[in-house]
Specification:
Number of strands: 2
Distance between the termini: 18 Å
Number of helices: 2
Largest sheet: 2 strands, parallel
């Protein structure tokens, strides 16, 4: 899966990560690539690191 955009709260990248974690349970070979930068970068990185 690929998502491209500015990493801001209203874009919902945190929800995308939550959905991806659910998909990954059933389809472990699934890969998510997020391309972008913005103020939510650190928050999203922390979500990824914690999971």
């Amino acid at each position: 899966m690929l998502s491209v955009g500015r990493l801001i709260k209203r874009k919902g990248f945190d929800l995308l990560l939550q959905a991806y974690m659910e998909v990954k349970k059933d389809l472990p070979d699934t890969i998510l690539t997020i391309i972008g930068s913005g103020p939510e970068f650190i928050t999203l990185k922390n979500i990824i690191d914690e999971n």
